[in-house]
Amino acid sequence: MAQAGMIEDYTIREHIKKGGRWRDSIVHTILHREWRDQQA
Predict the structure, then answer these.
(1) Which candidate among 8, 32, 37, 38 keeps its CA 20 to 30 Å from the CA of 20?
(2) Which Gene3D superfamilies match (predicted)?
(3) What's the Cα-to-Cα distance from 39 to each of 15, 29, 32, rounded to whole Å?
(4) Which residues constitute the domain of residue 19?
(5) What are 1-40's pLDDT values in tens digits?
(6) How many domains are there within the chain?
(7) Read out DSSP for 24-35?
């Protein structure tokens, strides 16, 4: 994600149950202008 210019924006705590345990999910974001500027 970092290579794509995205940043770790927030965590959804205990979002999904996997293997009998609750897991957090990390949400990565990028602004359109940041993405566009990378493509130029």
Answers:
(1) 8
(2) 3.40.630.30
(3) 33, 16, 11
(4) 2-39
(5) 999 899 999 999 999 999 999 999 999 999 999 999 988 7
(6) 1
(7) EEEEEE--HHHH
